[in-house]
Amino acid sequence: MRIKLTSIMVNDQDRALKFTPRCLAFRRNKRYPLARTGGSPVVSPEGPDDLELSLEPNANPAGKAFQEAMLAQGIPLTAFEVADIEKEYARLKALGVVFTREPAKAGPVTIAVFADTCGNLIQLYQPPS
To answer: What is the per-residue DSSP string for 85-129?
Structure first.
């Protein structure tokens, strides 16, 4: 068993499909809606092409309430690993990405948190070298 597809809810799929490639460099992998949700899969340029992140519209009232509650509590909905968090932080800040937490040590890792413009906080983490 392995992860091939995971998803994150977005409150504006069109905005997510602009933010994700422009700021994160993720690209659309396949253009097919997933089931009834209409999710759009993207992949990281640094990962395998068959490991997808689906940007799912938050049309389900329970999902929408969960997403809004997590944002209100300042809890990231997902995390992405980076090799150099200071470099990624500077690159994303230059693109206008808003961080709610600047890079800081959290035990053995360094983390930072930013808003994805689609109703989520995303955590970046750099493992120990």
So the answer is: HHHHHHHHHHTTPPEEEEEEEETTEEEEEEE-SSS-EEEEEE---
